[in-house]
Amino acid sequence: MTDILSRSHAEALDRDDPLGSFPDRFVAADKDLLYLDGNSLGRLPRSTGDRLARVVAEEWGGGLVRSWSSWIELSRRVGDLIGTEVIGAAPGEVLVADSTTVNLYKLAAAALDARPGRSVVVSSADEFPTDRYVLQGLCAARGLTLRDAAADLDAGVSVAGVRDALDESVALVVLSHVAYRSGALADLPAITAAAHEVGALVLWDLSHSGGSVPAGLSAAGADLAVGCTYKYLNGGPGAPAYLYVRTGLQEELRQPIWGWFGAADQFAMGERYVPAPGIDRFLVGTPPVLSLVGAEEGVRLLAEAGIDRLRAKGMAMTSYLVELADAWLAPLGFRLASPRDPARRGAHISLEHPAAWQVCQALLDRGVVPDYRTPDRLRLGPAPLTTRFIEVHDAMATIRDLVAAGTHRDYPEEIARVT
To answer: Which positions in this protein are listed as binding pyridoxal 5'-phosphate (predicted)?
Structure first.
């Protein structure tokens, strides 16, 4: 029987991995780099460069404006691919356009307009900052109250905690499916059902779950969702985000940014705005064609791998990471700051350590790429599609060795970075 702490055990896990061939389909310019930040920026698919080169040379360079006949459907085409293959939505319920923040604003404002007379928006104090900023702005402009549901920094939000924040004054609930800091997984179906019991709408942020955890939006009766394409979807830095609107809500909602791509007869160039039918009404302006092409290549690979297999590997990989942390890092002062049950977390975990910032900087200098989140969290995100078990093993061994040697103490504390 193989020692689970040995390197040979990680090699055996990779040999048995049904997704083991996928990392070779991504660019790895530095073969020695141990990349555990796929939940911030996904790797570059090898196919993306070739596809972009063709689009630039043939469609833009050769076709010029005539190529809009094929580009005009990109937002919906890539949206349908994400919807049906990644987040469990029906065709015609997902678009790719704008940024996550802009999409969140559009859907939150539309939802609030659809619940007149209600005065409260529910979120969490541990919600991703941009989400809270958008909600704070909307509440300030409309004279509404932003109410926090109870949330544990490590365990995330619970159904009971959200229920306690709900009453018939609540218009909208906005929460992340997977918590950005700890990786805690919220119970999307149960929270959605609880909000519906009091007549509220729910807007889910799937940025840290889309591509690694099945969302099952249609099955859960979810109302609204947003998410980014540059993390697990490997769309590239700044790639456009996606938004989801349940079919039954689409005609009821009118988003606040009225642009010509969301108009009913776009090329009639009419004087007055009339929203397009269906999901197209949530478009605004001209879509970023090259970025959409990059996102499509990343999503195609996810669709080929299958969201259920990605979820299984994400659970296995984070469980392996936790086993190594228990054995090697707990004696060095690290504490698991994520749910221990793999079914209760997404595809990343956090480890608390008083010198987490210094450890992070020391790792970066040694070819290991983690992330840091306050307070004192070393965040590790092995992406199921692109990370091998051997990378997890070697990264954790590096953390063990440098902290045991005290090497991280050579680096300034975090306060030096922000003063």
So the answer is: 100-101, 128-131, 205, 208, 230, 260, 286
- How many CB atoms are closer than 10 A to CB 407? 16
Which of 128, 180, 244, 282 is catalytic? The answer is: 128
Query: Which listed residue (22, 26, 105, 230) is catalytic?
Result: 230
Domains of the chain: 7-45+306-418 (3.90.1150.10), 72-304 (3.40.640.10)
185 in helix, strand or coil? strand
Annotated binding site: which residue ranges? 100-101, 128-131, 205, 208, 230, 260, 286
pTM: 0.96
The answer to whether 231 is a known catalytic residue is yes
DSSP state letters, 270-299 = -SS--BPSGGGGG--S---HHHHHHHHHHH
Q: Spell out a b/e string for 215-237, using b for 16 or more CB atoms within 10 Å of the CB, else e.
A: bebbebebbbbbbbbbbbbbbbe
pLDDT 10s digits, 299-350: 999 999 999 999 999 999 999 999 999 999 999 999 999 999 999 999 999 9
Amino acid (one-letter) located at 341:
D
Per the annotation, the verdict on 261 as an active-site residue is no
Would you say 111 and 253 are in contact if contact means Cβ atoms under 8 Å apart?
yes
Binding site for pyridoxal 5'-phosphate: which residues? 100-101, 128-131, 205, 208, 230, 260, 286
For 273-290, the pLDDT digits (tens) are 999 999 999 999 999 999
